[in-house]
Amino acid sequence: QGWACLKLTSGVKINLEAPVKIELRDNMHAYIHYGTAIADVPDQAHGFRMDAPDAEVTDYGTVFAVSVDKKGVSSVNVLDGEVEVFHHQSKERMRLTQNDPLQNEIRTKDDTDSLAHTVLSINSGVGGYTTVMPKHADTHTFDNLIMLKNPVPASFNYSRKAYLKFDTSELDASSITQADLLLDQVVSNIGFSTRIPDCTFSVYVLKHESEWSPSSINWQNAPANIEKSSTALQSEKVIKVGEFIIPKGQQMKTITTSLKLAKFDLSNRSQLSLIIVRDTMETNGSGLVHTFAGVAHPEGKAPRLHLQDK
Q: Could you tell me which residue, 310 or 250, shows the higher pLDDT?
């Protein structure tokens, strides 16, 4: 349970997220059997290698994560810098960088359609995310969290809506047949789960591109936001494209929401802005704030779009 940090004599730091099994073969070589490990490799340890059952990942000056599921299928996520991935079955070698929005995270599979999915990371290009609040945002929001809350009316100022932006400038939208938004729900330390029921969430897309940035957006200037409502948005500026439910008491899970592509056009966009609200109001004050991992969160991956190609 939880997480741990290993510091190797080579200078490499490896954060482990439970449940995980890792084998340290020497101070420049590790093997992850299952689970997630995030390696932070300093300059003097370039060439550090993290092996998985189906692949080898070699560092070229970076921070990267390797996750292996119960079937031995791995995924690689480059948070900073560059790695080389060697896939055992296909014998293919590929270079991945944090700045490549279409290959920032590539699953290596043992089937013939290993490249049938494109993964678009929130932290590529002009992408980003933020949480907006009517008041108290400076003390009640955090850079590595995405937060949602629909409080009782007396606590309206603690409402939270989430804004996500993905860089789609290098995307061949004509080949995309399905888009899934993935959010990693993580444990919240704010509010009580006993004071909320099962909660429904809605995902909206901005009809037109907006140049908002995480550093400047707030409750008052957020695109399409209705300032006096915890959930409402300006209907003429958004389209609802998805919905998901989180059961009462659940605080850790990857949430997958299929977006209704037929309702919006990806082909003429260089960026895609999504807004998420929690439709369900808490039953009493001090209800749980639902939280999801942002960039560099120790227990989850940042939001990403899994895009199914033809």
A: 250
CA–centroid distance for 6 within its chain: 24
**pLDDT value for 117:** 61
Is 0.85 surpassed by the pTM of this model? no
* CB 123, CB 303: distance < 8 Å: no
Q: What DSSP designation does 287 have? A: B
Neighbours of 236 (CB within 10 A): 7
Q: Return the bridge partners of 24, or none.
A: 30
**Contacts by 132-136 with C-beta closer than 8 Å and gap 24+?**
132/160, 132/161, 132/162, 132/163, 132/217, 132/218, 132/219, 132/222, 132/225, 133/157, 133/158, 133/159, 133/160, 133/219, 134/158, 134/159, 134/219, 134/227, 135/219
Interatomic CA distance for residues 153 and 203, integer angstroms:
22
Of 50, 15, 49, 48, give the one whose Cα is nearest residue 32.
50
Q: Cα–Cα distance between 224 and 237 in angstroms, integer?
A: 6
